[in-house]
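quick one if you have a minute, typing this from the bus. below you get a single protein, a line of residues and a line of whole numbers that encode the local backbone shape. could you go over both lines and see whether the tokens make sense for that sequence. anything you notice is useful, everything is just below.
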Amino acid sequence: MDTWNEAGVREAPGAGPLAGLRILELGHFVAAPFATRLLADLGADVVKIEPPGGDPVRQWGEQANGHSPWWSMHARNKRCVALDLKHPRAREVVLRLAAGADALVENFRPGQLDRLGLGEAALREARPGLVIGRISGFGQDGPYRDRASFGVIGEAMGGLRYLTNHPPEETDLPPSRVGISIGDSIAGLYAAFGVMAALWQRDRAGGAPGPFTLDVALTEAMLSMMEGTLPEYGVFGTVRQPQGSRIKTAAPTNAYPTRDGQWLLIAANSDPLFRRLARVIGRPELADDPDFAANPGRLRHVERLDAIIADWSRERDAAEADRILGEADIPSTLCYSAADIAADTQYRERGMVRELDDPLIGRVLHAGVVPHVPEAPGGIRWTGPAVGAHTDEVLAEAGFDGAEIRALREEGAVR
């Protein structure tokens, strides 16, 4: 069984399944740094290049001791090098770091690295087998290539924002944001997956030179997640519409109000589950009612069915209702807030909520490592470091001697 030290770090042999892999990150904000954090959690040695003033995410959200708790998790397990990419000597530094890397992940606008002298040809001259993961708003080509973009643009053009709302007949409010930078994170997931696929192909070919270039667009990453939205339109001409908290294909699945003002998610959308739910809410006759006995009828009469279930849930506090449903083996849960997540015993037992000591901000909670790999567990080796915390160490590994590092610092190239 895994054990945990006082800092919340898993104490187990090995450093994760990606130990020995080196990734160079030329990323900022969310997408590329998210991709590399996933790889770092599984043991990869991620070297993050950020400007001398630090990645902008360091300033996002509420600050503790002048530092962002978001950064604590966003940059964990990475070694940070503060380098001014616009400085004349920056190109030399990046290329020497790239020479020792397996992959490079970046999310600048298309063409920006080329203008800095860090195009694919230069990077591959330094490291012929380098895998290059490129994340951008619209991809490296096409008519939108040079348009400005953030995750929210990808979410909108990928189709997610259109569906993230209540049905149009129920509201005239604008489509809602998911609540996190989901477009950036999804693109980061695809980039991390692509990097590993490219490394597998490279190593399968005996380490032969590439090119191994990944082109991940925020818009396309979101579109790829949209299930049957596009196929249904192609076959039937159907434009999927917002469903609120229901799902279109099965009922009952919804969020129901409780006596203490919370929301309880219930998903009893198979026939056996619905029969069980009908008994739990004291309406066993519903299971034999032609309007509700099978899923097609439940969908046709979903408004009436949800009202019946809501009458039951309103008479109970959320925790009590959830307990009753859990004992009946009906899928249900409270709609978790951050406080609920932090207190949850399942998350705590599996190490998905960890208490860490961050030297910059003190005690902090992190989400754990996904996926769990019991045979070679990843871990949280350190929290998001200070600006330039590893500059000297990383440059020395790349072959810069002490005099060169001092000169780079005096010239303002590094911090």
Q: What stands out?
A: Residues 1-14 have pLDDT under 50 and may be disordered. The radius of gyration is 25 Å. The first helix runs from residue 31 to 41. The chain has two domains: 3-226+350-410, 253-336.
